[in-house]
Amino acid sequence: MSDPIIDLRSIRREFAAGDTQVVALADLSLSILPGEMVAIIGSSGSGKSTLLNILGCLDRPTCGTYRVAGKNVSELDADELAALRREHFGFIFQRYNLLGDLSAAANVEIPAVYAGTNARQRRTRAGQLLSRLGVADRGGHRPNQLSGGQQQRVSIARALINDAEVILADEPTGALDRRSGEEVLRILEELHREGRTIVTVTHDAGVAARAERIIELRDGKIVSDRRTATEATHMPAPAIPLGSRDSGTGWANASGRLREATRMALVAMAAHRLRAFLTMLGIIIGIAAVSSVVALGNASQRKVLSDISSLGTNTIEVFPGKDFGDARAGKIKTLVLADARALDQQSFIAGVTPTVSTSMTARYRGNESNVLVNGVGESYFQVKGAKLAMGRLFDADAVRNIERQVVIDDNTRKTFFADDQTAGIGRIIWLGTVPCRIVGVIAQQQGGFGSNQNLSVYLPYTTVQAQFTGDRSLRSVLLRISDDVSTTLAQDAVTTLLTQRHNAKDFVILNTDDIRRTITSTTQTLALLVAAIAVISLVVGGIGVMNIMLVSVSERIGEIGVRMAVGARRSDILQQFLVEATLISSIGGLAGIVLAVLLGVAINMAVPGFQVTYSPFSIGAAFLTSTGIGIAFGFFPARRAAFLDPVVALSRD
Ligand code: ADP
Ligand code: MG
């Protein structure tokens, strides 16, 4: 007589039902030999399913010992129990428990996936089993496209894919018509003849009669245990090596399971496309908003700073007015030529350029346009960094002699001399009623000088005062500081001097260094603000992911139970949901990056002189952030799925 493959001693299983304890199994002892075909019968509620769950290591007894091939299962941890289920037991359920999102063949392959069998072997073996069970042509169908009998055959194939020695079937024919039921019984008998141990739970006496041993339960106790065959036909015990017979726990195996988890996650996302998209939307918007705001901020800072540096360094400009943006600045006439002369006497000032400005109608041969007339000194162009395109600039003599020489900008040239080879040089243009000779054209500068759409012309300030404005007040005085003097000191000295001359501080001094500092610090404050908003929006996106993953887990508790029953480890379940959360958020992150880049391209095309760029570093950071969100916020739901109790999960359908 061989040793029992299944050996229960004084097994008790109690369930807490409110305040009372329900005893489902009471001190039950039972041995089953390898190769036996056993039917367990009894009325509903007698404890049959509870017993089968304990046999299959889905559930643990409250007390008593259970040995499988001599090994005490109470000494095994969750993963070792999963290995036992995966490699030695095959489950057949009354309701088939196939996964609806997968094809029949893919359902059959699941236990082999967790066993680490390679894809090609898996596919071949699933095909062989399906054809052996007479459903070869149904491998590509979804479970809901199959009849009950066909589904049960697919589930038997799943039970056999890892070549289980013990088949545990709970009411396998309970949901089938008589003919399909008969077919399933015939298959079970065939498996029995191959030497497998078959344990079937049934309440149908006809089904029970096909077994060679019938055990009857009542109120959790065995009330009869008899043999139908005169002679037991059980086989010698096949050796069950209780260690894992995985093809390995190596790298190939792990990456194969990861690939499978990814495939499953994609299947799950495809099954709930709208939901996956809406979940992604939070991440998409978050990542797109953050990346484009950061890029826009960088671009505008770059532009402003480059505009400022085109003003030249080591210069300060004095304007009338109490403060920047003083609305009455235009009416304050206290900044006059005498101030500029006085400043010119100072040793720390290397150059003084008074400026005046007014608006005029310019005319040339019947062409007319409004222009901004700037009266400036001869050194103005150099200080402002303007470049001559054609002709020449006016000199100090022209300023002294109040000559009517005019330098035009590129916009003015385009307006009046678009087709003129000489670009207007040497021609007479009328500014109001004053004819002026054009001596030069200055080039258009990207960003800085003369980049807007206005037409500007430049004359000696003496000419503008004499011919147009008629008074001595100035728009500003541009000062170039000597190289060996600090800008701050010079600024203080200028302030003191002008305050003395005016008996009041009715002017403001613009220092490019100050502006640069202000802009840089403003941008930094803005960047902090954006970062705060970014964190908030990404956390909100992450909570969205977590929420949907929790919904997904509770919707798929049945699926999780089936996967655990066929041998998924906790880490497999954890991985599957974690991969799903990570995929959702990293795909969302990628979409967000694409959206931000498209937005940047659109802005670059719409706004000339503006360069929104995305560095590979910021793209990488955005992608990693979105992936990190998936992992961080997916972990809790995934862990929750992984730690479900297999029986509880299975019974929740
Ligand atoms: P059968 O499969 O023979 O119909 P079960 O094994 O399902 O019977 O149940 C046996 C007894 O244990 C029943 O009284 C049932 O109500 C109880 N029972 C089974 N599972 C649970 C559970 N998870 N919680 C509480 N009581 C349970
Ligand atoms: Mg039952």
Describe the structure.
The protein has 653 residues and is of the alpha/beta class. The chain has 3 domains: 6-247, P-loop containing nucleotide triphosphate hydrolases (Rossmann fold), CATH 3.40.50.300; 264-305 and 518-651, no CATH class; 333-505, no CATH class. The chain is 47% helix and 21% strand. It is built from 20 helices and 20 strands. The two termini are 42 Å apart. Bound molecules: adenosine-5'-diphosphate and magnesium ion. Residues 48-49 line the site of magnesium ion.
The gist of it:
The protein is an alpha/beta fold and 653 residues long.
Rounded to the nearest angstrom, the distance between the terminal CA atoms is: 42 Å
CATH C-level class of the largest domain is Alpha Beta
Integer average pLDDT: 86
Q: How many helical stretches?
A: 20
The radius of gyration computed from the alpha-carbon positions, rounded to a whole number of angstroms, is 44 Å
Q: Please identify which CATH superfamily of the largest domain we are dealing with.
A: P-loop containing nucleotide triphosphate hydrolases
